[in-house]
Amino acid sequence: MAKPEPHRGFTIGVELVPGATLAQARGLERCIEDYADAHELQIAGHHLTYVVSAADRGLTAVDQVDLLDWLTDQPWVRNVRLSPLALSDTPATWSEGFLLVASCDVPVIGLKLLYRCRRITAEQYLQILGGFVRPLTVH
After folding, report:
1. pLDDT of residue 91
2. What are phi and psi of 113, to 5 degrees?
3. Which residue ranges make up each domain of the chain?
């Protein structure tokens, strides 16, 4: 009998705008939990850094972009850091690469409109934003 393929997931990190209160951060965390429930996603983590997966399927670029698109529309969100897809039982680390998206960046606003109108795919959305980069490390 073939062993089932492991599911894929990703990691997100949310940075709030300066001056956001603890109550606003908690409100955003509750909204993220509600989003996850509504989209049949599982999230694990704390302090606005989450590992995102699904119980019955592997996630795709569409899941990443849909969450990214929703998050950048939320009040108090300044930046979202998104990891590449990885095996969901081994959360991605930022050293493996990430995409940093600023909510108020003009290209992001245009991309969101193109994506919502289905003029670009989720994969194209991620490529246009520059793709996943690895942080520079000095030895």
Report:
1. 66
2. -65, -45
3. 8-128
Which CATH number applies to 8-128: 3.40.50, 1.10.3470, 2.40.10, 3.30.70? Answer: 3.30.70
Q: What is the pTM of this model?
A: 0.87
Cα(102)–Cα(9) distance, rounded to whole angstroms? 22
pLDDT > 90: what percent of the chain?
66
Separation of alpha carbons 74 and 29, rounded Å: 11
User: In the prediction, which pLDDT does 97 show?
Assistant: 84
Q: Is the distance from CB of 92 to CB of 52 less than 8 angstroms?
A: no
**Strand, coil or helix: 36:** helix
d(CA 44, CA 68): 17
Q: How far apart are CA 63 and CA 73, in angstroms?
A: 16
